[in-house]
Amino acid sequence: QVQLVESGGGLVQPGGSLRLSCAASGSIFSAYVMGWYRQAPGKQRELVATITSGGNTNVADSVKGRFTISRDNAKNTVYLQMNSLRPEDTAVYYCNARHVTLPHAYWGQGTQVTVSS
């Protein structure tokens, strides 16, 4: 069992920056691929970025060059640095932990990001 707690969301103007954090507890952090997903009103949840314990990343084309995912295995925390934010980035952002070999996946409660002037 893994517990995920996100923080760092909020209201920001277009062109601004935010950093999301997701603290994990309850299991071996390095055994999980960590990721960020988002869901805008009326839309399906979509992948934003993932990162393996070794630091390999996968970033959605829509945020590539603006968002950076990173993780600190010593702190059991994954981050999403979001720069040059746009109104279309407005969504609830969810942290995800997916076990590398077992069919286990966990979600955080979500944090709201609103980009508006």
> Tally of extended strands?
11
CA-CA gap between termini: 40 Å
What string gives the helices and strands in order?
A: EEEEEEEEEEE
Q: Total number of helical segments? A: 0
Radius of gyration: 13 Å
Assign a percent range to the helix content: under 10%
Uncertain runs are none
Overall geometric form: globular
Largest sheet: 7 strands, mixed
Global mean pLDDT: 96
Strand content is over 45%
What structural category do the secondary elements indicate?
mainly beta
Q: Could you explain the architecture of this structure?
A:
This protein is mainly beta and about 120 residues long. The protein contains no helices and eleven strands. It has strands spanning about 5, 10, 20-25, 30-40, 45-50, 55-60, 65-70, 75-80, 90-100, 105, 110-115. Strands 2, 4, 5, 6, 9, 10 and 11 form a seven-stranded mixed sheet that branches. A four-stranded antiparallel sheet has the order 1-3-8-7, with no helix packed on it. Strand 5 (about 45-50) and strand 6 form a beta hairpin. The model has no long low-confidence stretch (mean pLDDT about 95).
Descriptive terms for the model:
117 residues, mainly beta, 11 strands
Question: Concise description?
Answer:
The protein is 0% helix and 53% strand.
SSE layout:
Elements: E1 3-7, E2 10-12, E3 18-25, E4 32-39, E5 46-51, E6 57-59, E7 67-72, E8 77-82, E9 91-99, E10 105-107, E11 111-115
Parallel strand pairs: 2-11
Antiparallel strand pairs: 1-3, 3-8, 4-5, 4-9, 5-6, 7-8, 9-10, 9-11
